[in-house]
Amino acid sequence: MMLLQNNEYETAIKNFKNIDHSIPIIYSVIEKNNGGKVFVDNVKNPENIFILPDGGFIYYDTLNSSEDFMLEMKSFYLVNLFLL
Predict the structure, then answer these.
(1) How far apart, in whole angstroms, are the C-alpha atoms of residue 60 and residue 68?
(2) The pTM of the whole model exceeds 0.85
(3) Per-residue model confidence (pLDDT) at position 1
């Protein structure tokens, strides 16, 4: 699981073209209108994306579910729950 830098958020946007829910929350972070963090499994071609908008909401999207990514995401969230 890798943290994207702000200038890399656009690589994640293609994964959200066909969703019909949570759009304002997702795009507010990806378009840098609101704060948050974006984690991916692969910087150049992400298939698993974990978005942590500022404010306590989380969003996970996958094109190809990865058990390793999900375990890393769960561990990260539980360890950092009170630090975010």
Answers:
(1) 14
(2) no
(3) 85
